[in-house]
Model the fold of this input.
Amino acid sequence: MAMIPNELTGPRVYVAVDDKKSAKMHLTGGFHKPDRDKAMCGTSIEGKTLVDARDIAPHSEYQDSELWCLRCIGILDFEPLDQKILFSAIKFQPGTYGDLVVIRHLQRPSKLKTHPFRLTNAPPRKDWRIVK
Ligand SMILES: [Zn+2]
Done:
């Protein structure tokens, strides 16, 4: 099923971590790389560990933007808010990702302000992530 981009929620973004921890961390998954075959920037992620962004991006030891592939972080702009928000704490020179991208997403350009966020339909029940 083709996913229709949704401004608020969408498929998970994963972080490709180099086991030697020497290389920059890339992003995959989301709308951009649903098959997770390469990083969003096109770099091979073969042999890297894919971590759910929730388990790595919000943590304090990963706040330095030097640790991240900036091309992947740039493409993350086009992913939905619920995924971008996980990267809010990453610090860049002019401010955090939250300051620069998440707040801007919520404010939206003034000509769009009068329109509601673009949402897809709720998934068919078989696609629900049922917890219990
Ligand atoms: Zn990358």
Remarks:
- Strands lie at 13-17, 26-29, 49-52, 91-92, 95-96.
- The chain has one domain: 13-119.
- Residues 13-119 form one domain.
